[in-house]
Amino acid sequence: LMSVAGCYTNFHLDFGGTSVWYNILKGEKVFFLIPPTRKNYSLFLCWQKRGAQELIFFPDLVDTCQMVTLKEGDTLLLPSGWIHGVYTPKHSLVFGGNFLHSLNIKRQMDVAYVEKQLK
User: Fold this and answer.
1) Could you tell me which of 110, 33, 23, 115 has the C-alpha nearest to residue 68?
2) pLDDT (tens digit, 9 = 90+) per residue, 82-94?
3) Is 3 helix (H, G, I), strand (E, B) or coil?
């Protein structure tokens, strides 16, 4: 994954409730992480359906949002179902991937339900 400085990916869930890993080869990424709770999923659905994502910063709607900065050589393992946004302050080259496993089947199903509601 290559990203130019200043890129931003708005808040989302990774498809199918997959877990994901990121390794920063070059550059830097800032992740904004929101825990996978029923309340947060409900707020996320409303925020998505409202269609005004450019006007409402999703973390302003939730109780908790954690910020994690990844620099060259850092790796992040993001468990299934975490709502997240990503900012790229420096040109970046990142390796990563999505995967399913049997340890979080319930959460993967929760994400599938959210995805179905957004169709």
Assistant:
1) 33
2) 999 999 999 999 9
3) strand
Determine how many CB atoms are found less than 10 A away from the CB of residue 6: 10
Q: Which amino acid is at 64?
A: T
Question: How many Cβ atoms sit within 10 Å of the Cβ of residue 112?
Answer: 14
Q: Measure the CA–CA gap between 83 and 107, rounded to whole angstroms.
A: 12
Whether residue 80 contacts residue 109, with contact meaning beta carbons closer than 8 Å, is answered with: no
Cβ atoms of 1 and 101 within 8 Å: the answer is no
Taking the whole predicted model, whether its pTM rises above 0.85 is answered as yes
CB neighbourhood size of 2 (10 A): 12
Distance CA(79)–CA(81), nearest Å, equals: 6
CB of 73 within 8 A of CB of 99? no
Closest by CA position to 83, among listed 38, 116, 35: 35
